[in-house]
Design brief:
By secondary structure, the chain is of the alpha/beta class. It is about 30% helix and about 20% strand. The strands form four sheets. Strands 1, 2, 3, 6, 7, 8, 9, 16, 17 and 18 form a ten-stranded mixed β-sheet that branches. Strands 12-14-10-15 form a four-stranded antiparallel β-sheet, covered by helices on one side. It has a three-stranded antiparallel β-sheet with strand order 4-5-19. The chain is globular, with a radius of gyration of 24 Å.
């Protein structure tokens, strides 16, 4: 995880040439009445159930088994076996990724990639209300581990190629389906990184559609906003450490590693990195301001106009910690290890500081800032075991956004399309660093409570999943017409 890949310039050299005029109108009524079933809904539900109920946890599951099942469905739909591969390193045979190529009419056009990870976070039956590896439909929701993250998109993308194969549909531009393994446990193995390093030709694409953003519903179920994610903050751990000879606790000395580290962490907690906006976050806050209450909207516009407006930035942080994460680099202590016995002076104090670094900020600059803020020469500051992976922010051009807006308008007339930057991390960081623009766009709407991804009783709204299937089907068709 976090191995360096070749970097590109901040302005990607390629420009996406996607004709917006050719977007097919979506004529689906989404009124108060019960929506009519989408074409092929029953078959999609079966595919989704099979993928969700295939255990792909690191401990006892197998991504390879799940990949084989999805490959079998593609072959039954008419895709030739020669057009797909299941790839895994010899040392991780259960971490297989499915790469399937659906050709376009113009072989000179680079394909677009549909990326979704099929591995899931661990889940214990005794902790869950329902069996986490049995898909349960209840009160308008699907419940299961992976029901949302990320087997929803994996199922939608696989179903898309099944439908195209059965219909013998031939787009102008080809599509590469990449169902990968290891996104949730990159410290163990990451399929996207491994594929980029060992099978780079298979990963070449004009751009990539990936997880990383969804949609927001209000308490009444109204569609408020549809996010489009472009760019991610860089994950980087730093290790702080101070040592001392120690001694008997009945003979305190003037130097105490725990006390010194505590004082340093107090200084770090009081420090805030400066606000810095890029094109994506600037657009995000301007769009949010159109939906926020007047006082919050005023603060958003104030920060966009003047990033040094600290009072407005502080109020936004109080209102929503995620907004603070989008405004600036953040560094926070997450683990502490100090002392070796209750009756002895500590010989060592160690702390892990986790930073989420804005794109374009040099890693060494953040380390230097930590040293300056800590202001204690006795405390060493080193990078963690893995180096973060800086990557450029892909451009959100009109050619990229206009098809999204057109299709979303037909499905969800009231929803505003909002550019956003991820403060967490997805596999998109590897592809963006390799020079392939990668965007998070799922079309899956959730309320403020979210999906419970990574937590207990993960869920997804049934109608949100079915709507997202239709949305992404139309979107991919639009992007592959040119």
């Amino acid at each position: 995880m976090m191995l360096s890949l070749p970097r590109t310039s901040r302005r990607l050299r390629s420009v996406m040439v996607l004709a917006v005029a050719a977007v097919t109108p979506v004529t689906i009524a989404m009124g108060a009445s019960t929506p009519k079933p989408y074409p092929g809904e029953a078959a999609f539900r079966g595919l989704y159930r099979e993928l969700v109920e295939t255990n792909t946890t690191l401990s006892v599951g197998s991504c390879t088994a799940a990949a084989e099942k999805m490959a079998a469905r593609l072959q039954r739909a008419g895709m030739p076996a020669a057009s797909m591969q299941i790839l895994a390193p010899a040392e991780f045979p259960k971490s297989g990724s499915l790469i399937a190529s659906y050709p376009g009419r113009d072989a000179k056009l680079e394909p677009i990639m549909l990326l979704a990870h099929i591995d899931v976070v661990e889940a214990r039956r005794e902790d869950w209300v329902r069996d986490p590896f049995t898909l349960v439909e209840e009160d308008g929701f699907f419940y299961a581990r992976g029901a949302s993250d990320d087997k929803a998109m994996a199922s939608i993308f696989t179903d898309l190629l099944v439908r195209w194969s059965e219909q013998q549909y031939r787009p102008q531009r080809g599509v590469t389906l990449a169902l990968t393994c290891g996104e949730e446990t990159s410290e163990h193995f990451n399929g996207v990184l491994w594929l980029l390093q060992n099978h780079p030709a298979l990963m070449q694409a004009k751009f990539v559609l990936n997880e990383g953003a969804g949609g927001l519903l209000d308490a009444s179920g109204k569609h408020l906003s549809l996010d489009v994610q472009a760019g991610e903050k860089v994950y980087q751990d730093f290790r702080l450490e101070v040592t001392h000879p120690g001694g008997h606790s009945s003979r305190p000395t003037r130097e105490n590693p725990i006390s010194r580290m505590a004082a340093a962490l107090t200084r770090l907690a009081a420090y805030q990195f400066p606000v810095s906006l890029n094109d994506t976050t600037r657009a995000y806050f301007l769009a949010q301001a159109e939906m926020a209450s007047p006082d919050v909207a005023a603060d958003m516009r104030a920060v966009v106009t003047d990033p040094t407006n600290d009072e407005a930035a502080q109020r936004l942080w109080t209102a929503n910690p995620s907004w603070n994460g989008m405004l600036r680099t953040t560094c926070v202590a997450t683990q502490f290890d100090g002392g070796h016995a209750p009756n002895a002076l500590p010989q060592r104090a160690k702390v892990n500081v986790n930073c989420r670094i804005l794109p374009g900020v040099p890693m060494e600059q953040v380390r230097a800032d930590l040293i300056r803020v800590i202001a204690d020469d006795a405390i060493s500051v080193h990078f963690g075991d893995e180096m973060g992976l800086p990557a450029p922010v892909p451009p959100l051009t009109a050619e990229m956004l206009d098809p999204i807006r057109t299709i979303a308008k037909a499905l969800w007339p009231d929803a505003r399309v909002v550019p956003t930057m991820a403060t967490g991390a997805t596999d998109g960081r590897f592809l963006n660093a390799a020079g392939t623009p990668t965007y998070g766009i799922s079309g899956v709407f959730a309320d403020a409570a979210g999906s419970g991804a990574h937590g207990l009783n993960e869920r997804i709204r049934v109608q949100s999943l079915l709507d997202a299937r239709q949305f992404l089907h139309e979107l991919v068709k639009s992007y592959t017409r040119h």
